[in-house]
Amino acid sequence: MEQQTSQPDPMTEAALRSLHDISMPTPVSWMPQTWGWMVLGLIFLAGLTLAFLLWLRHYRANAYRRKARRILDGIEIRIRNPETRQDAIHELAGLLKRTALAAWPRDEVASLSGQAWVRFLDGHAEGGAGHMLALLLDDVEYRNDANIDGLPQNDGDDIAAAARRWIERHHVSA
């Protein structure tokens, strides 16, 4: 059998030659079509900018807390070691004072000691400074080194945890 080659129909050929490419519409603009959307976009952008600036101010205002927490991490390690516990406890009391001096005016904080210092910490702490900070500042800080060496391990950890809570949660009025 012979294959027949069919010739295309002349009308079909003419119709195919007369076809043109599909014309694509112009791309839709991403710009708002009315001024109301433009205003809404600007308000949204201003809100985002304001939120970022407020976050940045809060972040910078709490830089002293982040630094105090980094120092406290090292102190906590030394409190767990009986050989370095006494120096670490004395350093912890100094860290609390430096943290308070970074947040409040010097004339309000620098002269505080003993019960006045404990009341200050208690008054500015969320839920109070706690018994362990009062123990540190009232008693342990002024003991001799032999008494600090006799301090139980869990008391050292509790004092460090109370100091961390105060550093992270104390309230500074604007």
From TrEMBL:
Keywords in alphabetical order: Membrane, Plasmid, Transmembrane, Transmembrane helix
InterPro entries documented for this protein: DUF4381 (IPR025489)
TM stretches of this protein: 35-56
Stated name of the protein: DUF4381 domain-containing protein
Organism placement in taxonomy: Bacteria, Pseudomonadati, Pseudomonadota, Alphaproteobacteria, Hyphomicrobiales
